[in-house]
Design brief:
Length: 195
């Protein structure tokens, strides 16, 4: 069972991914995280993508599709994947569909967690306050400038990618300001059709 998860930063994708991992044994997969790990390990791929990422541009579709192909072939990912912010262009969406078709698989649902920008700012501010109160260092990307840039990036790609899944009757937009349990329930009810 493969799921597309979209939503701005701090919309609750991490929390819902944990729910999906536990309930369905899916594997969380984020190209942003994967690419940062490649850079941190100074691998050939990391060296290749560093400049593009530093400039805030998109990594090429071929690189993204190669990483996706690799993960799909790994035994650990056999129950299915939560594609978290992985698909950002139409060639990536079409490429993923083609790879899955070749494997006789498909995307079963796409979710867009929608949260008003003002609420996202409040969430990040309180996350930073709570982290500081515990005497810990806040996440590097938990600051307002980074948040606003990431929200803009999200808006740019979601207005391209959401319609792709909507046209295929796969998209569910969920109000991400509901309780964690209510969001999980909604996701769960849609996924019942995939079983
Ligand atoms: P993120 O932290 O997920 O926003 O990703 C950080 C950076 O990684 C982005 O600004 C892009 O440069 C690159 N990246 C991550 N996922 C993709 C993707 N699917 N397509 C192209 N570039 C990506």
């Amino acid at each position: 069972m493969h799921v597309i998860l979209m939503g701005p930063p701090a919309a609750g994708k991490g929390t819902q991914s944990k729910f999906l991992e536990e309930k369905y044994g899916l594997m969380h997969f984020s190209t942003g995280d994967e690419l940062r790990a490649e850079i941190a390990s100074n691998s050939p791929l990391g060296q290749k993508v560093q400049k593009v990422m530093d400039a805030g541009q998109l990594v090429s579709d071929d690189i993204i599709l190669d990483i996706i192909k690799d993960r799909l072939s790994r035994p650990a990912y056999k129950n299915g994947i939560i594609f978290d912010g992985v698909i950002r262009t139409i060639p990536q969406a079409k490429g993923l569909d083609k790879i899955l078709t070749e494997r006789k698989q498909a995307i079963c649902a796409a979710f867009d967690l929608s949260v008003d920008e003002k609420i996202l700012v409040d969430r990040v501010e309180s996350r930073v306050e709570q982290t500081l109160a515990r005497g810990e260092t806040p996440r590097k990307d938990d600051n307002l400038d980074v948040l606003k840039r990431r929200i803009k990036e999200y808006k740019d790609f979601s207005k391209i990618v959401s319609p792709y899944y909507a046209e295929r009757d796969l998209l569910t937009v969920i109000d991400g300001t509901q309780s964690i349990e209510d969001v999980s329930k909604k996701i769960d009810s849609v996924l019942q059709h995939c079983l």
